[in-house]
Amino acid sequence: MYYVGVDVGGTNLVAGLMNEDCEILDKASHPVDHSQTPEQLCGEIVRLAKQVCQSGGVTEKEVRAVGIGLPGQVNNKTGIVVRTPNMPFQNTPVRQLFQRQWDMPVFLGNDADCAAIGEYRSGSAKGCSPAVTVTLGTGIGAGMVVDGKLFTGFAGSGMEVGHMIIHPNGHLCGCGNRGCWEQYGSASALIQMTLREMECSRDSLLWQLCGGDRSKVQGRTVFQAARQGDETAHRVLYSYRSGVAIGLINLVNILQPEVICMGGGVSNADDDLLLDPVRELVRQGSFDKTMPTRLVRASLGNDAGVVGAAMLCDSI
Ligand SMILES: [Zn+2]
Hints:
- The protein is an alpha/beta fold.
- The chain contains eleven helices and 13 strands.
- It has helices spanning 38-55, 94-101, 111-122, 182-185, 187-200, 205-209, 219-227, 231-255, 275-285, 303-310, 312-315; strands at 2-8, 12-18, 24-31, 63-70, 73-75, 80-83, 90-92, 106-110, 131-136, 140-146, 149-151, 259-263, 294-297.
- A five-stranded mixed beta sheet has the order 3-2-1-4-8. Strands 11-10-9-12-13 form a five-stranded mixed beta sheet, with helices on one face. A three-stranded antiparallel beta sheet has the order 5-6-7.
- Strand 1 (2-8) and strand 2 (12-18) form a beta hairpin.
- The chain is globular and about 60 Å long.
- Residues 163, 173, 175, 177, 180 line the site of zinc ion (ZN).
């Protein structure tokens, strides 16, 4: 049997055809048209899902299930996408709309959960339990697989680790609370920290790397500057790493996962600038100083979403 996973991102729809060994046999992508209605966007998802079957030489009868991963709040029990940032879905019955055009078992998951399933099935967390995957992006997303099954809490909103409060009265978060982890550990937080430090350091290399244009500062800019010995960049990274580490320490102390996979563009930074020092901070801050939890880089990159979506049917 074969599986189809569709990763619905803010800019692209990516569909993948997968075999039982979690190998992606074929992929197709299409830009998201933000002017489309929910019905039209669902139509695109169906079209792309069928397209990879066709190009992969698989008949529709050979497909066991279709999984759809989306950013935002998703309810697989009801088949409804409650809300997604920057997309037309709002209390949209995505499963029903899909099945109206293609009568298949359809599973829905949020993108962080799909990434966690993907890493568990064929990435850095393969076969581990509990396996947590943390994605540092605009916010911080995370998912956890326990004994092969996704843990999402009682009503589907568990593991919203980006909103664990690590600083009472800290920075205001989009969720309405103050001091959430993602205000200190996400890629966006890193950019904000970099911009704040740049204001105090007019001679920093960071100004040259962004051509004097603050809006060109990206997560990777600060790592580039640090690589070239820039003091300001090192100062930013010092506080960013402690921001990342605090949340990870809490995760380790509460869950003691077998492995935590770090994903998102920021996690591609050189090990000596991010992962190695963060691992040491987490070890020092953990209750169990032997730190049996392995902290590693996620290995599937952008494919994690497609693999995880395709395997939702076996993970829920
Ligand atoms: Zn928050």
